[in-house]
Amino acid sequence: MAPVFDKKNVLVIYVLGGPGAGKGTQCSKLVDEYGFCHLSAGDLLRAEQQREGSSYGELIRTYIREGNIVPMEVTIKLLENAMDAALKENRSGAGWSAGKGRFLIDGFPRKMDQAVKFDEEVCTASLVLFYQTTEEVMLKRLMKRGESSGRDDDNVESIKKRFVTYKETTMPVINYYAEHGKVAEIDSTVSVEEVYENTQKVVAKILAAQEASS
Ligand SMILES: Nc1ncnc2c1ncn2[C@@H]1O[C@H](COP(=O)(O)OP(=O)(O)O)[C@@H](O)[C@H]1O
Ligand SMILES: O=c1ccn([C@@H]2O[C@H](COP(=O)(O)OP(=O)(O)O)[C@@H](O)[C@H]2O)c(=O)[nH]1
Ligand SMILES: [Mg+2]
What we know:
By secondary structure, the protein is of the alpha/beta class. It has a single domain (10-213), classed as Rossmann fold. 56% of the residues lie in helices and 14% in strands. The longest helix is centred in the C-terminal third of the chain and has 24 residues, at 156-179. It is globular, with a radius of gyration of 17 Å. The site of magnesium ion has 5 residues, from helix 1.
């Protein structure tokens, strides 16, 4: 079913990169500065997993623990519903007015089928922020995060599987958008502040271009 909102009215940025690269961290800074609505596909799936009465709870738990990609219909529906809900809140501030809004979609699309389907049926992204660092750095960050995250997949067995999924399944998505000139690659090995400075530069440019065209 088509989304209720008009895709012309939304600005979408996909936020991609390996597990632990720093996607969520950078998104929260962008939310504070630019008023984006931040939708993390992983957070939406974890919330659905916990929701009483959900028929997907067990399926989501297994996919996440194994580092696999949950069937796209589930994730796309959750994202679409969350976008609809945000647009219906009638938020105010830069980029928001009746039926209009700006979104960071974090950790999605992670597989080509999701990318094609979302682009065709929901909306297209103006930009892909791609956070790039080494597996060594990501492993260290995730092990540290695992001390307090309570996540089923922040353990070494799941992390190794997530790295394989990232290389085999998500990198082709990033390469696909790179071929379409949509990817801004940012080294996320450095400090949170330095990564954010580079993030700001690209995001400010996209927002200025959007303003100029509207
Ligand atoms: N640039 C950075 N330098 C050091 N630690 C970072 C950096 N960015 C994020 N972190 C930490 O690494 C962990 C993973 O970051 P997170 O934003 O959750 O990544 P992702 O959403 O890509 O998995 C978190 O504990 C976060 O505090
Ligand atoms: O579109 C998506 C996004 C996430 N996930 C699952 O959710 C997990 C955690 O994703 P999240 O983005 O929260 O992890 P992060 O990269 O931030 O550590 C992934 O490993 C997948 O199993 C999924 O199936 N589809
Ligand atoms: Mg995250």
